Each structure stands twice: as structure tokens, then as C-alpha cells.
Amino acid sequence: SNGEKMSKSRGNVVNPDDIVQDYGADTLRTYEMFIGAFDLSASWSEEGVKGCRRFLERVWKLQDILTDEEGYSADLETKMHQTIKKVSSDFENLKYNTAIAAMMSLINEFYKKNSITRGEYKTLLTLLNPVAPHITEELWQTAGFEGRLYQAAWPELRKRRL
């Protein structure tokens, strides 16, 4: 749509079914939540959709560096709790874009150290589930976590760890 208002007469309408077909429902959901503040209009960007797809692919590939450790690693414990606090607050205030940005930042940390503990993975999947429910549920099952992710408790924030 190149920043123009979408309209049928201009022939620049994006069909969400096509996006789901090409990139998946979770990519569309992530993009729609990431493009800006919930109460503001935003321009459609195919590059933005592709960026959200790459983000979800990075989430998928975290299983390749998953360790058997159950808790949080000492060097990321503070970052984990900061992310829980930020995502929880942002979701409550409909600031999905900044919540997703916080999760992207956290994922970068896992790749920097080339590992993610089971505890960190479980928390990340839980935080990301409202945004990308299909991929996170599949990864939850693949990792062997108990029950269904959508029924899991929200991660506990330990303020003394901030």
C-alpha cells in the first residue's frame, strides 16, 4: 500500500487470507500487534510482515540451543524478570508493540550466549502465547512441558530480581 490509505478503488487492499497463506496466522497476528500503538493507524508493510516471520523463525530455532536446566541462568535472571514485568504491563495497557520488542530483545540475549534454559524457554513461550498462539503451543508440546500452554500460569515476577 506504500503508505496510502487502503481502498478497493485504488486496488491496494491487502487480503489477510493471502498473508496467512504465505506467512501463517501467527505472523499476521504478530505483525498487527507490532506495527504500532493499538489506538493509532499504521501503514501496511510487506517488509514488516517478513520481519515478524523472521522473528517467529528465531523463536522456533531456539529449540536447537535448549538446555536441560530448569531455572533461569544467573546471567539472565534480571533480564527475565524485567521482561516479565514489561510484557505484563504492556499487555495490560494494550502496548503490544513494545511488549513484542521486549521479547525480541530477550531472544537476542539467548542467541548471544547460544543457550536457553528450559525455565527461560517456558517463560518466553508463555509471554509470547497471546501474540503467537499456534507456534508457541506447538513448541510447548515439542519441549514436553505439562498440559496445554494456553492454560499455563503467567510467569511469576520476583521484584527482588529486578
From TrEMBL:
Q: Which InterPro entries match?
A: aa-tRNA-synth_Ia, Leu-tRNA-ligase, M/V/L/I-tRNA-synth_anticd-bd, tRNAsynth_Ia_anticodon-bd
Q: What is its EC number?
A: 6.1.1.4
Pfam families to which the protein is assigned, alphabetical: Anticodon_1, tRNA-synt_1
Q: Keywords on this record?
A: Aminoacyl-tRNA synthetase, ATP-binding, Ligase, Nucleotide-binding, Protein biosynthesis
Domain annotation Methionyl/Valyl/Leucyl/Isoleucyl-tRNA synthetase anticodon-binding: ranges: 77-158
Q: Name one GO molecular function term.
A: leucine-tRNA ligase activity
A GO CC annotation given for this chain: cytosol
Could you state one GO biological process linked to this protein?
A: leucyl-tRNA aminoacylation
Q: What class of enzyme is it?
A: ligase
Where is the Aminoacyl-tRNA synthetase class Ia domain positioned along the sequence? 2-31
Q: State the reactions this protein catalyses.
A: tRNA(Leu) + L-leucine + ATP = L-leucyl-tRNA(Leu) + AMP + diphosphate
Q: Which PANTHER family match?
A: LEUCINE--TRNA LIGASE, MITOCHONDRIAL (PTHR43740:SF2), LEUCYL-TRNA SYNTHETASE (PTHR43740)
Which family is this protein grouped under?
A: Belongs to the class-I aminoacyl-tRNA synthetase family.
- Protein name, please? leucine--tRNA ligase
Upper taxonomic lineage:
unclassified sequences, metagenomes, organismal metagenomes
